[in-house]
Amino acid sequence: MAGRPAGSPNKDKPFRDALKMEAALAESGEETPAPKGSIRWIARQLLIRAGEETAAAKEVGDRLDGKPAQSVEMSGGLSISHEEALGELE
Fold this sequence. Notes:
The chain has 90 residues and is mainly alpha-helical. 51% of the residues lie in helices and 0% in strands. Helix 1 crosses helix 2 (39-50) and helix 2 packs across helix 3 (54-65). The longest helix has 14 residues, at 14-27. 7% of the residues are buried. The mean pLDDT is 85.
């Protein structure tokens, strides 16, 4: 199985970091120093679109704050307890 181990935190978030840098520059009225096509340039373009488009604003929010938790409803019941399931494995 490839990738990071299940349950380990994913601390490397370069696009989120680029959004934060570009948001700070935009709030102070500065242009991006990033070259066209770079991750920071793309982040700035998304921030510009977020001022006009709901989908872009949602994307920025999801990247900075994380996606909202999705609620799941469950009906019915369990026919076996956790302890019984573990007993069947032995």
